[in-house]
Amino acid sequence: MDAIMIRESLDIAHIAVLGGISLILLLFSAMASGSEVAFFSLTHKDIDELEESEDAASKRVLELLDNPDRLLATILVTNNMVNICLVIIVTQLADSLFLFSGVWEFIFNTVIITFLLLLFGEIMPKVMSQTKPTKMARGLSLLLKALRWLVYPLAFILIRTSSRVSRLASKNAEISIEELADAVDLAGTGSEEEQKMLSGIVAFGQTEVVEIMHSRVDITGIEYEASYDEVRRVIVETGYSRIPVYGDDLDDIKGVLYVKDLLLHIGKGDDFEWQRLLRKPYFVPEHMMIDDLLKEFQKKKIHIAIVVDEYGATQGLISLEDILEEVVGEITDESDEDEDKLYEKIGENTYIFDAKIHIGEFVRAIGYDEDAFADVEGHAETLAGLMMELKRDLPRRGDELESHGVKFFIATMDGRRVDKIKVEVNG
Length: 427
Hints:
The protein has helices at about 10-40, 45-50, 55-65, 70-95, 105-130, 135-150, 150-170, 175-185, 190-205, 210, 230-240, 290-300, 320-330, 360-365, 385-390, and strands at about 5, 100, 215, 220-225, 240-245, 255-260, 285, 305-310, 315-320, 345, 350-355, 400-405, 405-415, 415-425. Helix 1 runs antiparallel to helix 4. Helix 11 (about 230-240) links the parallel strand 4 (about 220-225) and strand 5. The protein is elongated. It has four domains: about 5-170, no CATH class; about 175-205, no CATH class; about 210-335, Roll (CBS-domain); about 345-425, Uridine Diphospho-n-acetylenolpyruvylglucosamine Reductase, domain 3. It contains 15 helices and 14 strands. The strands form four sheets. Strands 10-11-14-13-12 form a five-stranded antiparallel β-sheet, covered by helices on one side. By secondary structure, it is of the alpha+beta class.
């Protein structure tokens, strides 16, 4: 007995109606599938061209793209409803044409119909839309605008449900910064510089201004009452392009002097009132996150900020370059060539550190974990501060301290300030 036989008596009218409906549904399925690719494949250049165009179709495309969630929901609801109806109709059409035996009915209804639906209703229209997305989007914009209102109730339910599921999934998918940092370390791809940059990006949003600022003792400032000759001398000696100007002391910042503002007055005499060129200083709290400060720098179009504590006292200075260096690494220019490094490795496990180095940079340099000294560092932020916490007194030249397998030897002092520290790490 044949597996598939044509029925002896055929209802031609019934078959013609089912065949016509099937072709229409297949066309709608193809248009729905093609529109999904066409609309969501548009590039910024394509959208710019649509915005410049004045025709109605372009305006409809832009209107639909204004609410992409609703557009996608409309396409998905339409496509799935059409495909379900198409499978039902084609199954009835097959039953009207053929007699099946055994499992052949199942094979025909699942394998053959699914293949035809995928080929003509999914693959071919999506390939065509991918090649000319703008043309397809314009051509289907009117139909989608009508369907958007027709299937709105179902699309609304789909949007609300998917957004709620997305929120729940995002809550469950949250990972800590430490886990993300571990993932970067485990990836181990790319060069050492790329790894450092990835680590910098991960830690960027968790870094406070106080961790990377130039401390108060390292600020080069100009007295407000200084002569013009003195101002020029400081500029030449330091090479800085922006210099804070203070009154009685650094807690009384009057403004910031931009060297470029002096270019038109470079030949003026010593009686020139350079103070008139000062720009308003921008103050930031010491515990502000550097990603927030970067946004403020961009918004206000400034490159330097004065860091103050809760009492308004000047704690340090931070620049745009300092923030960028947290991601891309050290940025050097002509004025940096003669600057001393913050540390120097003089032996296999022996270093000479500048006492002002931040504790985070120090532990990275010696290969320790970020929180290696967390139990003893207290409120210290620099290596000099760590020495004070360890000794519980003012450190002096020649002091030797030890903690967590690291020996510290205070090598040089600058007055009462620790200058250089020799460090030996027990291998």
